[in-house]
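Q: I'm writing up a methods section and want to include an example of the input and output format. Could you take the sequence below and give the corresponding predicted structure tokens, formatted cleanly so I can copy it straight into the document?
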Amino acid sequence: MKKIICLFVFVAALQANARKILVSSSAAIIEAGVQAKPGDTLLIQNGTYNNCNLIISAKGTANQPIVFMAQVPGAVHFTGNSYLHITGNYITVSGVVFKDGYAGKNHVWQFSHGKEVANNSRITGSSIQGFNNPLRLDENHWLTMSGKNNRVDHSNFTNKTNLGVLVAVLLDDDRSRINNHSIDSNYFGIRKPLGSNAGEMIRVGVSQHCTFYSNTTIKNNFFEYCDGETEIISIKSCGNKVAGNVFKECQGAVVLRHGNDNTVEGNLFYGNDKEGTGGVRVINEGNWIVNNFMSHCKGQGFRSPLAIMAGVFNSPANRYLPVRDAVIANNTFLNCSPFSISEGKDTERSVDPKNVLLLNNLFYANTPGPLCYTVPTIDSVFATGNVFSTSLTNPGVSGFNAGAIGLQKWDSKGFPVIGASGANNTTKKILDSLNSIASTRGVPAFSNTIGANNINYFKALFANAPKLGNNWESKKTSAATSATTIAAASTANASRPNSQKTITVSTVSELETAVASVAHSKILLKAGTYTFERPITIKGNITITSNGAVVNFVTSSAINNLFTLQQNAQLTLQNSSINASAVSAQHFITVTSDGSGIHNSIGITGCKIQGFTGTAILMAPKSSYLDKITIQNCAFENNKATLLSLKDEDDNKGYYNAEKIVVTNNSFINHTGPLAVIYRGGNDESTMGPIFSFSTNKIVNCSANEPLIGLFGVQLSTIENNMFTASNKTGNIILYTDNTKAFHYQKNNSVNSSGAIQENKFVINK
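A: Here is the clean output for your methods example:
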């Protein structure tokens, strides 16, 4: 279909008799648009507008803005290759929905077009739902903010999957600096791990503009299941405020990455014991972190509930300027992982924080553990009035004292409050001096309480958060796809024998038909021979089993793959004995190589696979991305191929192919080729994965021309309780290579007549 270009050019003259103009087609929109005057309202009739590039160039006034709105909020849908760009003054866009489409190289919503910007304009009560470019690494933003005094509010943003920041505040020139934008009262829903950098929900500025003031306010928003990368909000400019937001089960933190004089105040970080949930990461100068409540945040390292970073000496703009003159006061930490001082310190990040005030913070935990991680010398960190529960252990940091802390219930997680014996007045003079400048930063006056003890404030934040966003779109669809809910649904479905239709087949043709016929099906293979003429495409949630019977997979001629997964597809091979010695294929299982194969999962459980000769048993090509790979309780015998080939993201930009890889309780006998090759290049530190677990496996008489397990840039690995026997005798059985900080845990591995384990400084032997 030929793309429709919908161009709105509004006249700037002030008119006393403003009109309401109803339009019902793209042509009518154009005709009405050129006649609109300040004070007019352009009503778009309910319906779907496909392939529509909306360029609104309008000049309203403060008293008579030009309004561009849906006839009924939520009933006007823009689909296909569409976008909305605004320039001019005093324009309001309301009630529109962008879904079932993509914007390509353009950004979906933008307060600029070409060289022109918008000022004093607003998008409100609207929605972007899964409006993703088809390929994961085709980058764009969903919203860019340029100009000055613009606002985005009461809108929903859900399920962004392609590369690129969701909201980007741009500071390209003086027209967009000291902008006083407001991003408020919105709902930011699920963003699954991206497998790379550029998965932030909001970024304010970029490193080369970090010394400029943006003065953007991010206030009263609800962030739910935002797991794209380690930075939920990335601040890369000066004078911004992040206040009154709720972060529910988000794997990341508010990161003061570049820029000075930013404020993080009065936010609720509700981790709910989810791994990777953090709070605030502090870098640069003059930043304040005050009156925040971190509940059950379990992130470590950069994702800690509070991470005060080490800096780089004479740092370039894109690295880590040392922390200076920070105020961290009246925050509460409930059952969180330890916070850290001089986090990430190494030969490059060698400069400790200086002139940091840690005042009247409260730390409560109901289980034993360390209060914090720090370096031996922190002479320039001044702490006083901080209280922690007696269950925690202080590593010797002065200014932190054990005190009587009670737990006041307001939900299942509670709220810690300081007891009388923990009160401390030594910081009163300091707090009084801070109060003289608090109002200039929009921070409430300090009182000499311990922690963020306004229980009613945080109760109201938590209760009101689900109501944020627009008032017409249900958030149940978003919540239903959260990791927590998916796990619960999977457990529930497993308990229902009829929840997944079972189809019995005896030929590849029947197998192919069964896979295509039902999106969620269980397929039973009868004992016998299955001859593949071409790869079978997996589009839904498919389980294939032979119930233990022996099946022979063969190919009539050479093919690329036996099974190919499309986007969002899930394949489980279960309780099957597969003889693949007559297969001529490069890969047993792979993901589509066109770049659209993302958020797949693969499981091989209780199977025996023998005799396969090819490139890889499981292979993820470039630009593909799997949420999880699980191989458990299986036997692999006499195969000649890489078991897990996850090495094609070789651009050294921090991309990788799989988030979690679990290989447990398997046997590998007479296997030729690596068992796992996982690559994540570059020096980016913005991701949680890849996460690799290899445990309780038996490896006997296995060999390769490279390490059996080669981990390059894997962020977290656990290799434990494995037995290596007569394997890779003259080479390495494990090789670790890292350009950035990583955590590699080893424990109870037995190595008999086998090659070496080549460790690096990030290996931790338990």
